[in-house]
C-alpha cells in the first residue's frame, strides 16, 4: 500500500511495550535497597573515593534535586534573544495609553 505525501503509515504510533511497566515496578521494588547500598558506600571509609563521591552525589541529587546549571547560547539565536529583550524594554518604556492602541 502506498501513502500520500505527509501521511503516516502508522497513525496510531508505536504500541507501548508492556515490559516497561514491569521494569519500572521492579526498580521501585528495589529502590529502598539501592538507597541503603548507596548510604553504606558513602559511609565505608575503605571504599574508593570515586565510589563514595558518586554515591553521595546520587543521594544528594535525589534528596534535594540537581543544582541549577547555566547555559551559554551563542550565534544567531543570541541576536534574536537580544532583539526580543530590547523589544520588551521598549514596550515597558511606552506610556500606558500608547500600549493600549497597539492592542487594537
Report on this structure.
The protein is mainly α and 104 residues long. It is built from four helices and no strands. The protein has helices spanning 19-43, 49-64, 76-93, 96-103. The chain is flat, with a radius of gyration of 27 Å.
Topology (SSEs and partners):
Layout: H1 19-43, H2 49-64, H3 76-93, H4 96-103
Helix pairs in contact: 1-2
The biggest beta sheet is recorded as: none
Question: Whole-Å distance between the termini?
Answer: 51 Å
Helix content: 55-70%
Radius of gyration: 27 Å
Keywords:
104 residues, 4 helices
Concise overview:
The chain has 104 residues and is mostly helical. 64% of the residues lie in helices and 0% in strands. The protein has a domain at 19-66.
Amino acid at each position: 500500500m502506498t501513502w500520500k505525501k505527509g501521511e503516516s503509515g502508522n497513525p496510531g504510533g508505536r504500541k507501548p511495550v508492556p515490559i516497561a511497566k514491569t521494569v519500572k515496578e521492579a526498580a521501585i521494588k528495589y529502590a529502598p535497597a539501592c538507597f541503603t547500598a548507596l548510604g553504606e558506600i558513602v559511609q565505608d571509609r575503605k571504599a574508593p573515593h570515586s565510589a563514595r563521591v558518586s554515591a553521595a552525589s546520587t543521594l544528594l541529587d535525589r534528596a534535594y534535586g540537581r543544582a541549577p546549571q547555566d547555559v551559554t547560547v551563542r550565534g544567531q539565536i543570541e541576536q534574536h534573544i537580544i532583539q526580543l529583550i530590547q523589544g520588551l524594554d521598549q514596550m515597558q518604556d511606552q506610556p500606558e495609553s500608547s500600549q493600549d492602541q497597539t492592542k487594537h
